Amino acid sequence: MRSLTLAALAVLAGAVPALASPCGQQIATIERRLDSPGAASVTGSTGSTGTATGSPRALPAPPAGQPSDPAMKPDAGKIGEARRLIEQAKTQDKAGQDAACEDTMTKAKEMIGALP
């Protein structure tokens, strides 16, 4: 009986999905940021990728004033390009292309800029 239980546990352990990759975790984090109310105020959308809560640390609206680096100011076009890059990163992550996924996510974060 005991050996049967151990064998069943071994089979179940093999069926447990692997933990998300570091790049996959970055993708999920950035998608939450893009679905936040602050990001929606930049794009004029309601956050349509399916995440209802957005980022728990996101601001409800962009901060007053200008960012210290004007290139970091988010706009709808840059956010749209970042979403395209995130889709590319998902494909790379699924293919096991860790370095390419990390590079693509770096580009996506640069496109997003200083989101509220």
Model description:
- This protein is an all-alpha fold and 116 residues long.
- The protein has a domain at 20-44 and 69-116.
- The chain contains five helices and no strands.
- It has helices at 2-15, 22-34, 37-43, 76-94, 98-112.
- Helix 2 runs antiparallel to helix 4.
- The longest helix is centred in the C-terminal third of the chain and has 19 residues, at 76-94.
- It is elongated.
- The relative contact order is 0.18.
- Residues 1-20 form the signal peptide.
- Keywords: Signal.
- Residues 33-82 are annotated as: Disordered.
- Residues 36-55 have a biased composition (Low complexity).
- The count of helical stretches stands at 5
The low-pLDDT segments are: 14-19, 48-52
- Cα-atom radius of gyration: 19 Å
Task: Based on Cα principal axes, name the global outline.
Answer: elongated
The helix/strand order is HHHHH
So what's the oligomer here? single chain
Distance between the termini: 58 Å
Percent of residues in helices: 55-70%
Number of strands: 0
Largest sheet: none
How confident overall, as mean pLDDT? 76
Structural class: mainly alpha
Q: Which band does the percent of strand residues land in?
A: under 5%
Region (Disordered): 33-82
Biased composition (Low complexity): 36-55
Signal peptide: 1-20
Keywords: Signal
